[in-house]
Amino acid sequence: MAETRSTCCYCGVGCGVIIEHEGDQITGVRGDPAHPANFGRLCTKGSTLHLSAGPETLAVRALRPELRTARETARQGVSWDAALDHVADRFAAIIREHGPDAVAFYGAGQLLTEDYYVFNKLVKGLIGTNNLDTNSRLCMSSAVSGYKMTLGADAPPASYEDIAHTDCLVIAGSNTAFAHPIVFRRVEDARKANPAMKLIVIDPRRTDTAEAADLHLALLPGTDIALYNSMLHVMLWEGLVKRDYIDAHTEGFDAIKKTVREYTPAMASAICGLNKKDIETAAEWFASSPATLSMYCQGLNQYAFGSHNNAALINLHLATGQIGRQGAGPLSLTGQPNAMGGREVGGLANLLSAHRDLANPAHRAEVAALWGVDSVPEKPGKSAVELFQALKSGEVKAVWIACTNPAQSMPDQTLVHEALATAELVVVQEAFAHTETCRHADVLLPATTWGEKDGTVTNSERRITRVRGAVPAPGEARHDWQIAVDFARRLGVALGKGELAQRMFPYADPESIWNEHRESTRDRDLDITGLSYAMLEADGPQQWPFPEGASTGKQRLYKDGVFPTVSGKARFVVTEHAMTAESPSARYPLHLITGRLRDQWHGMSRTGLVARLYNHEQEPLLHMHPEDLARRRLKDGDLVTVRARGGTMVVKALESTTVRAGQCFLPMHWGGNAMSGLGSNTLMPSKFDPHSKQPELKHAAVQVEAFVAAHTLVAMRASGEAGADNPHALMERLRPLLSGFPYASLTLAGREHPVVVLKARCEHIEPALLAELDRALGLDDPLKTLSYSDSRRDIAKHARVDGDRLTAVRLAGEALASDWLTDLMVRRESAAPVRNWLLAPVTQPPAGKVMRGKVICNCFDVSEDDILAAFRAGESLDALQARTRCGTNCGSCVPELKRMQNATPISRAAA
Predict the structure, then answer these.
(1) Rounded Cα gap, residues 48 and 30, in angstroms
(2) Engineered SS bond to 136: which of 339, 609, 654, 789, CB 3.0-4.6 Å?
């Protein structure tokens, strides 16, 4: 077995991993103990990366180029030459007829820095348009804007190590325990080492992160600015600001002082729905602590005033001098593995390489000279929402989408799907062919993915890590930078710029791209001229800036109080409370908040391939307060219709006290691959921040009503049995059926041997659909199938037993037994003792069998029921962990274990 050092491909923590592999197969993964971001730890997602790269996942990999010349036909496999020549000719024709702004490119924070650099040069240098944006626009652009407004550059000042040195940690708009679990492990370590450390969590929901807080400020959605302005008001009133620091190192304080004068704690209390005393306490802790660190993510960024959310929080750091010191400063938590690297090379429609601004003529001239072109276009490109609006209107004719899934991740999904259908040409460069966006592709270009790529990424703390491929590309897949370079050369010929394209894109390997990118940073704020591939490989990950001649990078910025602004001073930004894009009304009375699940990531194109990652939350669920359920005469588990101004969806309700009455929560991961309809983001408005152009994906106003449909359908198929299907291939065959139901979910259950689970509800199921479903599940052979039918009540059931194991089930019209049947299939237990009950309408397993309940610890497969039984019997958390190992690996479940322990009474017998 061989081992290769690389990084995780999920959140922006940038965890180091060691990939274990044999031949062309990845066989395992573990945390890299030498990597300074994680020191060997991995979350549930990272620790199962190898399971998303197993041989069975080839069923949904893009393995060869595919092309169609008419929308009504299916794509056919073609050669790389045929695919790229076709696209080059089509792009060239559109550019000649309509100009370069008639084409656009949309990329991702999962691209490597080298990939990003080539695309940026292709679009802005060769084609001559700034229509290059990425899904980083959806997650980090407001953080970028906030940094630039206040500090002068897109450069997070603090580092992860500051967590261990802070005395007051503020986590705002982030369920760090779920979204950045390894960072949260560092928080837990820091608090254990320093029990006096204060933790303030600012979040509308009582998340696992909030459960751990000394002070949880459960503000109303979108009221952060009022809170931070009020905290600054308190600091001024109580004399807690640092006037010496303000006078020496900042400007604009008098203007912000006038503004926050009106934001009394009483006023903010009314706006935010908070206790006045809690606002005062937060202000005192923030200002008075020897060192205060803030960490924040989408709960600040994803609003139509996200830039000012960020600026208002940074204002507090500037007013109190809590920046540029050990344990102090603002630290945005990046949502993707290389969103930072993409920003470094100008991978947004308003940026240029090395943190240069498109609006600056000198910056444009510098980049033009670097690239050897006459000029770089001045006109800003289309940002993400604008790009798809332009596709819909016909202003943009062709779009190239690389390594992202806008048909799931963008807001206003109805518009996005209409835009992709309207476009003259849709090119999708993707590793996984089953994504929602791939269905719209006229040309599908197979790309490499995690474990196969070679280059660099930059994490949230400005740390650059070498990424190495462990296995060869499957099929005909190519690296993203290779595809872009090949296309650029062909497009150059088609546009009569063949010699220029050859000069601009001479790259034979990613290191040559890196070296050019490195030189572009010389004398810039992110200068990395002192780094090389060889150094990163020998000395490990390094933080920028790391200029030529330096021996190390900078752990924290602005120690000297000098900022990259014209005056050298940081700027206070006047921010005012604003209303969310949508406000609750009589028609839409509930706040809908979106966020992440612990074990899923983004649109689930990768995590959705791993059965155990569904075990914590198995299907799309709308978390609702008990009062809101009761008011609508609903109960836990009922199906509900969620109506928003932009669309509707049908999901199952989950009773939860993590949200206030008047609020509900929906995970953002679910798309058309996993449910009927277009997914969670169908409900989200497309209004965006005027400064960052980041859309308000965090909040919408909705109504929730009971969904009533008479006919129930549950169908399941186990894998790993003789004749059983590849689960991913089976899910692909079942996905077209989802659109035929007003409610449906398609997920996985189990662990080593996945069970495909389809749930649906409608008024009536056509016999032809049932027959199609039975064929897909292997239930169409009467000699191998147990059957029950009651035509009067429209009930029809099938079950298949191979050997002594239940391998497939279809329950139509009544599905009371579905939960325990799923449990039986997942456990792979003998069906012989319950054979006579397989089609019976009973909710509990017979013969004394007990269901396990949901899995809390995915690492060691420890269920909720087992944990609760242990706590009721008087077992301590330490003893439980020693016996079952739950919570001792990645630690993601530890907050939930503590909550369960605190909420579980010990039985009298145990006492």
Answers:
(1) 9
(2) 339
What confidence score (pLDDT) does residue 904 get? 85
Distance from C-alpha of 474 to C-alpha of 486, rounded to nearest angstrom = 19
Nearest to 596 by CA among 669, 541, 651: 669
Work out the average pLDDT over 814-827.
94
The whole model's pTM is what?
0.96
Instruction: Reduce the secondary structure of 762-788 to three states and give it as a string.
Output: ECCCCHHHHHHHHHHHCCCCHHHEEEE
Is the Cβ–Cβ distance between 841 and 816 less than 8 Å? yes
Distance of CA 744 to the CA centre of its chain: 23
Q: Per the structure block, which two tokens stand in for 417?
A: 């799907």
Cα–Cα dist 405/386, whole Å: 16
What are the structure tokens assigned to 391, written together?
């596709």
Nearest alpha carbon to residue 345 among 355, 336, 357, 337: 355
pLDDT at position 846 is 83
Q: How do residues 221-240 score in pLDDT, each as one tens digit?
A: 999 999 999 999 999 999 99
Same domain, 157 and 280: yes
Choosing from 686, 706, 726, the residue where a domain stops is 706
Neighbours of 202 (CB within 10 A): 28
- The tokens describing 139, both together, are 């997650």
Whose tokens are 């679990």? That residue is 181
Give the count of alpha carbons within 13 A of 491, CB side only: 27
- The three-state secondary structure class of 427 is strand
Q: Which of 474, 575, 479, 416 is nearest to 119 (CA)?
A: 479
Per residue in 671-714, pLDDT (tens digit) is 999 999 999 999 999 999 999 999 999 999 999 999 988 799 99
Phi, psi angle pair for 370, to nearest 5°:
-60, -40
Closest-CA residue to 618 (of 636, 603, 600, 642): 600
Sign of CA dihedral 273, 277, 283, 286: negative
Non-local CB neighbours of 298 within 8 Å, separated by 6+ positions: 139, 173, 174, 179, 335, 595, 697, 698
CATH of the domain at 754: 3.30.70
Alpha helices in 725-863 (DSSP H): 727-738, 767-777, 818-827
Beta strands in 419-482 (DSSP E): 425-430, 443-446, 455-458, 463-467
Q: Which residue has the tokens 């008024």?
A: 763
If you search the block for the tokens 């569904």, which residue do you land on?
Answer: 614
- Which two tokens mark 222? 């979108």
Q: Is 61 inside a domain boundary?
A: no
Residue 757 and residue 718 share a domain: yes
Q: How far apart are CA 763 and CA 851, in angstroms?
A: 30
* 396: CATH: 3.40.50.740
Answer yes or no: are the C-beta atoms of 692 and 141 closer than 8 Å.
yes
Q: Which of 781, 682, 816, 107 is nearest to 429 (CA)?
A: 107
Q: How far is CA 390 from the centre of its chain?
A: 25
Task: For residue 344, name the pLDDT band (cuts at 50, 70, 90).
Answer: very high
786 CA to centre of own chain: 43
CA-CA-CA-CA dihedral for 897, 902, 906, 911, to nearest 10: 110
Domain count, the chain: 6
Distance, in Å, from the CA atom of 491 to the CA atom of 88, rounded to the nearest integer, reads 5
Residues 245 and 300 in one domain: yes
Q: Which residues contact 736 (CB under 8 A, 6 or more apart)?
A: none
HSE toward the beta carbon, residue 428, CA cutoff 13 A? 26
| Residue entry with tokens 């060769």 | 126
**205/280 same-domain check:** yes
Residue 730 has a pLDDT of 95
Q: CA-CA distance, 809 to 557, in Å (whole number)?
A: 60
CA distances from residue 9 to 36, 178, 294, 698, 906 in whole angstroms, order as listed: 16, 16, 24, 23, 42
Choose the final residue of a domain: 307, 332, 357: 332
Q: Which domain holds residue 320?
A: 140-332
Statement: residue 724 has pLDDT above 70? no
